[in-house]
Design a protein that fits this description.
- This protein has about 400 residues and is an alpha/beta fold.
- The chain is about 35% helix and about 30% strand.
- The protein folds into three domains: about 10-85 and about 175-210 and about 355-385, Ribonuclease H-like superfamily/Ribonuclease H (Nucleotidyltransferase, domain 5, 2-Layer Sandwich); about 90-170, 2-Layer Sandwich (Dna Ligase, domain 1), CATH 3.30.1490; about 215-350, ATPase, nucleotide binding domain (Nucleotidyltransferase, domain 5, 2-Layer Sandwich).
- It has helices at about 50-70, 105-130, 175-185, 200-210, 245-255, 260-270, 280-305, 325-330, 375-385; strands at about 10-15, 20-25, 35-40, 80-85, 90-105, 135-140, 140-150, 150-155, 160-175, 190-195, 215-220, 225-230, 235-240, 315-320, 350.
- The strands form three sheets. It has a five-stranded mixed sheet, with helices on both faces. Strands 5, 6, 7, 8 and 9 form a five-stranded antiparallel sheet that branches.
- Helix 1 runs parallel beside helix 3, helix 5 (about 245-255) crosses helix 6 (about 260-270) and helix 5 (about 245-255) runs antiparallel to helix 7.
- The longest helix has 29 residues, at about 280-305.
- The protein is globular.
Length: about 400
């Protein structure tokens, strides 16, 4: 992955399923990040989900966001782009090697292992999604924690062991998404320094905040998609997604109250902020509860899948624009999900509050009090710590 000078402005671009957010930031000699500019698109809600139309609109939004930053005087030289679902797909693979006697772990051995797993992932992805090789772009594999003779080891090259176990994160972005963004950046004189997926950005941020070893189930509620990731024993074990997010509730509101879909998002934001008068709030509450009940049924399916890796940590980290609605957090903490957790207790639900980031930034602009932008803070932190 290309490196950049942290003292030069870096553009961090968050491309979601219903909007584009961006920031220009630098990092000082003490490692503290300074956010110079922030820009964001309006929330996008199509009457129905069509990925080609959705990408066309998001691409235009990204152009507007980058253009706004340039007009404000920001001149970033390079960019890191974080894609949320549905613009990527990923897989975690586990490698094991056991020998009768201890062997030395060399860089060549690791390179061979990574190349073999990357090729298996590429072939499997093409078959799974029925796409041609030029329609997807495989991202650089990320090696997570390794175990030598059953014990965690951060640095393993040059060491000897009989049993080697390693976990790697493999991912790919659908080709047009990356090529369109790369061209957009180049047209503005910005070099593409790195591309990553939202689950990996959240995982690296969990490491930076010291909560990855403790473990989290991360529920990232975007506009169109909810992504559910399992972080356990310091490893991102798996992530799954399903097509229900904040926009699903917005369409229900739009249908029931005869709004257009984007006006319904504003209505939900006001509802979440408790800014609606009592009668309107009561009606919105019923619509939201019904939508969240359907969302919760699919969340249970996601937990079923993730629990195939073992019982889940008891802390559920709620992220993304859906955090504006308390009903999502309430649905996460119900008793019926206790069968998935390590000690059989309901999930404790937490959200990434601004105080968790305070010592990482010189200041946090007031726009980040909005739940929809919390993920951008995650992306910024990841972008400056992505090579731990």
């Amino acid at each position: 992955m290309a490196k950049f000078s942290s003292s030069r402005p870096l553009l961090v671009l968050d491309v979601g399923s219903s909007g584009v957010h961006a920031a220009v930031a630098t990092r000082n000699a003490k490692g503290v990040i300074d956010i110079e500019r922030v820009a964001r698109s309006h929330p996008l809600v199509l009457p129905e989900v069509n990925l080609k139309k959705l990408w066309k609109k998001l691409h235009a939004m990204a152009a507007d966001v980058v253009g706004d930053l340039r007009k404000s005087g920001s001149r970033p030289h390079s960019a890191v782009v974080i894609f949320s679902s549905p613009w990527y797909f990923s897989e975690v693979r586990r490698f094991t090697h056991v020998s009768e006697t201890a062997v030395e772990i060399t860089g060549k051995l690791l390179d061979t292992f990574m190349a073999e797993e990357e090729e298996r992932f590429r072939v499997g992805a093409l078959e799974r999604f029925h796409v041609a090789a030029d329609e997807v772009l495989i991202l650089e594999p990320v090696r997570m924690r390794a175990l030598l003779n059953g014990y965690p080891a951060d640095s393993i090259v040059g060491k000897r062991a009989q049993a080697i176990e390693a976990f790697i994160y493999l991912s790919a972005v659908f080709g047009r998404a990356k090529s369109d963004i790369k061209t957009l950046l180049a047209d503005n004189g910005i070099r593409l320094a790195g591309v990553q997926t939202s689950p990996m950005a959240l995982y690296r941020t969990a490491q930076a905040l010291g909560i990855a070893d403790e473990g989290r189930v991360v529920i990232d509620i975007g506009g169109e998609i909810t992504e559910v990731s399992l972080i356990k024993n310091g490893i991102l074990h798996d992530s799954v997604s399903y097509a229900r997010g904040l926009n699903f509730a917005a369409r229900r509101v739009a249908e029931a109250l005869s709004f257009d879909a984007e006006a319904a998002i504003v209505y939900l934001q006001n509802y979440g902020a408790r800014a609606l008068e009592n009668g309107k709030a009561a009606r919105a509450k019923k619509i939201v509860r019904d939508a969240v009940d359907e969302w919760k049924a699919l969340l249970e399916d996601a937990f079923e899948h993730l629990s195939g890796k073992g019982l889940l940590p008891e802390i559920a980290l709620l992220a993304g624009p859906g955090g504006i609605l308390a009903e999502f957090a309430t649905a996460l903490g119900v008793d019926e999900f206790r069968r998935f957790t390590i000690f059989g207790r309901p999930f404790t639900v937490e959200q990434l509050t601004l105080d968790r980031f305070a010592d990482r930034f010189t200041h946090i602009p007031s726009v980040f009090s909005n739940a929809e932008l919390t993920n951008l803070l995650v992306d910024i932190l990841y972008s400056f710590t992505r090579n731990p």
